[in-house]
Amino acid sequence: xxxxxxxxxxxxxxxxxxxxxxxxxxxxxxxxxxxxxxxxxxxxxxxxxxxxxxxxxxxxxxxxxxxxxxxxxxxxxxxxxxxxxxxxxxxxxxxxxxxxxxxxxxxxxxxxxxxxxxxxxxxxxxxxxxxxxxxxxxxxxxxxxxxxxxxxxxxxxxxxxxxxxxxxxxxxxxxxxxxxxxxxxxxxxxxxxxxxxxxxxxxxxxxxxxxxxxxxxxxxxxxxxxxxxxxxxxxxxxxxxxxxxxxxxxxxxxxxxxxxxxxxxxxxxxxxxxxxxxxxxxxxxxxxxxxxxxxxxxxxxxxxxxxxxxxxxxxxxxxxxxxxxxxxxxxxxxxxxxxxxxxxxxxxxxxxxxxxxxxxxxxxxxxxxxxxxxxxxxxxxxxxxxxxxxxxxxxxxxxxxxxxxxxxxxxxxxxxxxxxxxxxx
Length: 425
Fold this sequence. Notes:
This protein is an alpha/beta fold and 425 residues long. It has one domain: Rossmann fold (3-Layer(aba) Sandwich). It is 53% helix and 6% strand. The strands form two sheets. The protein has a five-stranded parallel sheet. A two-stranded antiparallel sheet has the order 1-6. Helix 13 crosses helix 14. The longest helix has 27 residues, at 83-109. The protein starts with 11 loop residues before the first strand and ends in a 14-residue tail after the last helix. Mean pLDDT is 89; it is low at 1-7 and 419-424.
């Protein structure tokens, strides 16, 4: 076929929603017919609301203004959100702006934070749905690593001494709501307040994050990100890590986010001594698995879910991102990288862990290896349900997907996953 993705009418569906959610959205639509339309605030109004909510007024510069403007305009024009989706999005924007205000206030009170050294952080990268979470959770069992939990990534700045720290409690409620609203999410990705969390929440505070376009279809913003120099955003991300390390020390950072794969140039500029583990998986499996996860998020936000358009946009985004990754790796120091094949991770995760430690000259104890074996025994494949997905569900053509990723699969000798005995993503 000539097209990598084919959008047909039967791939557009209504969002999967529980009855109370449908009722709330129905009321919201009724109000819309009366002229009370769901919408986002403009950038200035959003900033004012965050200022009122926090009692602060210093955002620490203007670098976030352009990405915030592009994000809000793209969302307003293109996202096709249902009433709850508008509310969720508005809440997220105000929360990220509030985080910026609180971060800046903390750095002003404690300027020494920005002198904190981050030495040889270990990043886990790879296409979404390639087993990065499995490896992340295993390595997080090593107490020498400093990783961030969901609750501290969601709200990095602790309250003043006069106020009780309720950040963990506040983070638990939206996770419960997510698991209630989208029950099948647990078969795709597990969230918990105390679990190791990837870097997306910190990057969202820059408003330069693929996370926003993961949740809903905002092509203008997504395309704008493609051409954006992300070094400034990664410097802001590093400052957040310095704050978290100042609050709780660790021997070295353990960090993970699939979208780091697409921004290796910025990552290596800001963290030149980073150690990077990149996991590689057959795109014929990784791409539809990623689409399936995104479609569940779209249920939370969108009036309709166009699975054909989702497949097309995902193929474009992942292909573009991997091209950038391959361009950077041509010139990057080879010793800074350790490549892992997904089938090898599934078949022998402990062997992969040992290989990582050997490559980067790190030590690991038998006790830690025992903890990792226990984790694997207690978290078997499909513990929370079977995740089923296919290329066809998202209008994707196997031949064209293979052709799009030929450079990537050839460079890393990625084999077909048809013989892989199990799947973790």
